[in-house]
Specification:
Elements: H1 2-7, H2 18-28, E1 33-37, H3 43-51, E2 55-59, H4 63-72, E3 80-83, E4 93-99, H5 104-113, E5 115-122, H6 126-137, E6 141-149, E7 152-162
Parallel strand pairs: 1-2, 1-4, 2-3, 4-5
Antiparallel strand pairs: 5-7, 6-7
């Protein structure tokens, strides 16, 4: 299990819940292009790389997290690209965008720029959720799914975008 693997690693204090990890595995199976904001130590990145043959772009600025991410994803070296938040993404169209960090200005600029089929926002992230929902609703019809267990919010939010 990915959660158990990452829970023992340095910097694991704020990794995604098993519920979020399982949802990312499900969502990434069909994704050919995935973009992740806030790679952290690589838990969700690993879930994507382990369940998809598609491309993964990861944004992370924290030096500690970058070191851990590179170490934790070394078996997938060459299968992902690491970006700083000052860089533009490689593409305009993405199948899946995972939001698990990043600053609000970058989030706003990114979602003005890209087209996406599915967005997963890990955890609560109220301000990022609001920005993303506002940007997406300008161009898409969106459906919202809250990932929870027995009605208790323990995961994240999925936005599915439709023309």
């Amino acid at each position: 299990m990915i959660y158990k693997l990452f829970k023992q690693k340095a910097g694991s204090e704020r990794i995604a819940t098993p519920l979020s990890i399982n949802k990312i595995v499900e969502l990434s199976k069909e994704s050919k292009k995935t973009l992740e904001l806030g790679g952290g130590i690589g838990t969700l990145s690993y879930a994507v790389l382990n369940s998809s043959d598609g491309e993964l772009e990861i944004y992370e600025d924290n030096v500690f997290c970058i070191q851990q991410l590179l170490e934790n994803l070394k078996e997938y070296s060459g299968k992902f690209t690491l970006h700083r938040y000052t860089e533009k993404p490689h593409y305009i169209d993405y199948d899946l965008v995972i939001v698990d960090g990043g600053d609000l200005d970058f989030t706003n600029e990114l979602f003005e720029l890209i087209n996406v089929r599915v967005v997963y926002i890990e955890g609560i992230r109220r301000l990022q959720r609001k920005i993303i929902r506002e940007q997406l609703s300008k161009r898409f019809a969106i459906s919202v799914e809250h990932v929870n267990t027995d009605g208790v919010f323990k995961g994240g939010t999925v936005y599915r975008c439709y023309d």
